[in-house]
């Protein structure tokens, strides 16, 4: 494959003004997004807020720190994280590039994990049938006696699995945001089902709402 020389002009187009965020040039907003995206690290959150990070900053995809934090509902400090961001003035109805709010983010999490939970319940029932010799018999399955000899991995009950045992906290987070007035985006859209012209029209309509500097990241992203 032919090599390509990266010029300073190309770098300016590809990266923020100060280059790729790293330990040497990270701005307060970078620290805040990092704290919210990679687990609920309350110490990192406090450090970012102490640096006057913008809790309503929108990144390149229009995501806010609150949207990022909302997906970390399996962490024990999840509610503390959300409450801290809200206390610092995080707005609950800011929209992403595709018109999604934090409520849309949570609703998608709930739909995904409730479906996964139902599938795990069915899978556990199927494994129990095989272990007790009550599964389907015949070619490819063997007899009921054969099935009883099958080694079935011991797994906890569905709601004791790591993927699902924290789901009550997900609903608590949703209730907290609803109490603060959070709503699903009225103009949320899926770009996969739009023509290029329709996408640009809808995207620009969303972007027009967030020209105020309070929604901008300090690092220029």
UniProtKB/TrEMBL annotation:
DNA damage in keyword set: no
UniProt keyword annotations, A-Z: ANK repeat
Keyword tRNA processing applies: no
Annotated ANK repeat ranges: 61-97
Pfam families: Ank_4
Superkingdom of the organism of origin: Eukaryota
Signal sequence coordinates: none
Protein name in the entry: Ankyrin repeat domain-containing protein
Native source organism of the sequence: Alexandrium catenella
